[in-house]
Amino acid sequence: SSYHKVLEENRMLYNQVQDLKGTIRVYCRVRPFLQGQTNGQSTVDYIGENGNIMILNPLKQGKDARKVFSFNKVFGPTVSQEQIYVDTQPLIRSVLDGFNVCIFAYGQTGSGKTYTMSGPDLTTEQTWGVNYRALRDLFQISKERADVVKYEVGVQMIEIYNEQFTLTTYTLDIRNNSQLNGLNVPDASWVPVASTQDVLDLMRIGQKNRAVGATALNERSSRSHSILTIHVYGKELVSGSILRGCLHLVDLAGSERVDKSEAVGDRLKEAQHINKSLSALGDVISALAQKSAHIPYRNSKLTQVLQDSLGGQAKTLMFVHISPEVNSIGETVSTLKFAERVASIELGAARSNK
Ligand code: ADP
């Protein structure tokens, strides 16, 4: 019967999720050289199959020039959006079984965060990023399970800029309230959504409602964190039991360090807020990985908003993005060091389990 099919599917899914070993995974993605750029020397010297990446630093000599970093997976510049999603999908599916999941895109501005999360062009499904593929899957799977579990899906979008929630927050959720972990999010109104198209339409409306013009928006989006949250509420028809799952898709602010001598005024303030929140995120994730007694969620708005979905039974995936150009080498190395800090302990455990 379809009920047993779903149970079997759940069991397989459970195993897949357990296979993800630990609650924190880190994937590294290398963006290709951009069109029109001369294909200069790449700082990515070698990508191994088992999650290793070797970086060549042309500013260093001898054996210091090459350094290997290790992650759960490394995706090279030719890996497609589709292939990226294959390794993300088990986590997305687990949301329908009541797991909370956070997926982050980290990296300097221009390294491909938005490409991974949203994609370059909403009108071509082939280039869709994780966001829309996840929505498509959630709606599709909930339809397939319709005679076993009745699902309702809601969406919410938040931007955090200078440690404040800004712009239109439109919340399209059912049985929940307009507060996130006790934080008041402005303009929260709840509307259920039934298809990926609904969400795309609403996102367009949301974009229009943003107070800033397009250029300013582009500029600012690299300095703000954008969080797309998908809530899933499911009722099992036979048992009547309730499932709640939540997926946060987070396009983080650019991680580049700002030259202290150059940054003044607004720019300096933005940079300080970004630094603070990204290091708060790193602190929370590494405290979780080390199973610390105290997890410092309170140190930033970002970690406060995501508190329910970081730690405990929740699963975290971070995509760290690097650019291959030589002039990005400083940011590339600091991005990879940040990512290793986030990943190291869980990875160590996963390796020794193999
Ligand atoms: P970020 O969000 O980190 O600032 P973007 O996602 O805007 O960076 O990417 C910067 C540029 O690089 C964009 O023009 C984007 O289309 C392109 N790009 C990023 N990643 C890829 C990729 N994997 N394949 C092809 N083009 C990419």
UniProtKB/TrEMBL annotation:
Answer yes or no on keyword Hydrolase: no
Residue limits of the Kinesin motor domain?
A: 23-345
The record lists ATP as bound by G107, Q108, T109, G110, S111, G112, K113, T114
Say yes or no: keyword ATP-binding present: yes
Kindly state which keywords UniProt assigns to this record, in alphabetical order.
ATP-binding, Motor protein, Nucleotide-binding
Per the record, the similarity remark reads: Belongs to the TRAFAC class myosin-kinesin ATPase superfamily. Kinesin family. KIN-14 subfamily.
**Protein name, UniProt field:** Kinesin KP1
Species of provenance? Hibiscus sabdariffa (roselle)
Q: Which residues of the full protein are shown?
A: 411 to 764 of 1116
